[in-house]
Amino acid sequence: MRLSDLRTPCLVLDRAVLMRNIAAMDRAVARHAVALRPHMKTAKSVEIARLAMRGGGVTVSTLAEAALFAEHGIVDQILAAGITPRKLAEVAALNRRGAAVKVITDDLDMARTIAADGGVSALIEIDCGEGRGGIGPEDARLPLLAAALGPALAGVLTHAGHSYAATSPATIAAVAEAERAAAVAAAERLRAAGHTVGIVSIGSTPTALHAETLAGVTEMRPGVYMFGDLFQAQRFSCGLGDIAVTVLASVIGRRPAEHRLLIDAGALALSKDRSTEAAPHDYGFGRVLGLDGTASLGAATVARAYQEHGIVACDPALPFPDLAIGALVRIAPNHACLTAAAHDRYHVVDTGDAVEAIWPRVNYW
Known about the structure:
Layout lengths: L9 E5 H16 L4 E2 L9 H7 L5 E3 L2 H9 L4 E7 L2 H12 L3 E6 L2 H10 L4 E5 L14 H9 L3 E6 L10 H24 L6 E4 L2 H6 L8 E2 L9 H4 L11 E11 L4 E4 L3 H4 L16 E3 L11 E5 L4 E4 L14 E5 L3 H5 L4 E5 L7 E4 L5
Parallel strand pairs: 1-16, 2-9, 3-4, 4-5, 5-6, 6-7, 7-8, 8-9
Antiparallel strand pairs: 1-10, 10-11, 10-15, 11-14, 12-15, 13-14, 16-17
Helix pairs in contact: 3-4, 4-5, 5-6
């Protein structure tokens, strides 16, 4: 089977690029002698998890991911999203069947519920500056949470999501140091109070790549590095040639007078993420590539995204593309996580256009 045999729109994964990205992160983390616990919220695939794992565990963001990976023998997991009592019961059930899923919390009542369950351990979520979940390392609630968890306390965890707003390697490195310092300070404070803190978990793709030191950290949890995307390419995390996932689309309309094409990939296939809008280069709703994945169409982008239609603004510096109705193009995404989430499988190629495998994804929650 070749790409030309596929129904469009669909998701294409270049295994060669994926493996190159995995190797690059392996080298970056190995510099610091910490464990890599890849975050699977982007890939959501057992096959990709097995390629990215390095003898340890994974990070997940949903119960659907946790259940799928546990079913396939990937049992050491951290569910890195705030837990509720109902979801805790599902995690406990997974653990009774042989999984080892840990949860996170920043809530005292929830910590007591976790401790009372007895079958799930937890990490205290620390806010290192993003202002989403977690408490600060000096917060008065930190020792109370540890005391409430008791033997269920597994460690501390933080995530520098605000690293995505950094505009230079130096500013990313500064965020990485703030991330490290917050987690380590929380861990040291708890240890001084007599608590055992085995895991000190941090990580985002930018901070994993640009951290200058990870002293006191036990593991990193980057995720989008496996695929890369147009936004990450402008945040010094990858190059344009390091984007492993694209959406295959068909030309369904030609507007030569307007120098535009119509394709069958719209918002539901590409997502409406416009993260590159505020970046140095705006790629609209995605960068349009040739069927071979190269920039044969120059600066063409998806300028508008309707539900099932995309409007391609062709490169004004090039002649109108000689693409017939039904011709295939590939769209590199702004945000690989959201674009991939629109699809239920990867059509795996290895540089060329031969589809060598189909790998399912686990979507929803």
